[in-house]
Amino acid sequence: MSKNVVYAIVKAGGRQEKVSVGSVVVVDKMDGQAGDTVELEPIMLVDGDKVTTAADGISAKVTAEVVRDDKGPKINIVKYKNKTGYRKRMGHRAKLTRLKVTGIQ
């Protein structure tokens, strides 16, 4: 592994994601149109051999650009009870946002 590796662990959309400059991340729906810039909250920053956590006080900022809004895969929900004639079909598609990381300062 190279010594000049720079990446961050950020809190985005209820989960933690490992990001580096140029990476594309899919998170839960965020406010903003395509082309807008958003700032993600860093939890940990790795810069070569130096590791900084939120407890140590991170002064870095992680910026990302909204690429587009997406929808997740269709999830089919089927409920059925035997001998009663009860059947229920539902579906769900999660609303997602695709982000491209533009900088870690």
From TrEMBL:
UniProt superkingdom: Bacteria
Statement: the UniProt record of this protein carries the keyword Amino-acid biosynthesis: no
InterPro entries: bL21-like (IPR028909), bL21-like_sf (IPR036164), Ribosomal_bL21 (IPR001787)
Coiled-coil regions, chain positions: none
Pfam families membership: Ribosomal_L21p
Cellular component, GO annotation: cytoplasm; ribonucleoprotein complex; ribosome
Stretch forming the signal peptide: none
Subunit: Part of the 50S ribosomal subunit. Contacts protein L20.
Family in the record: Belongs to the bacterial ribosomal protein bL21 family.
HAMAP family: Ribosomal_bL21
Protein's UniProt name: Large ribosomal subunit protein bL21
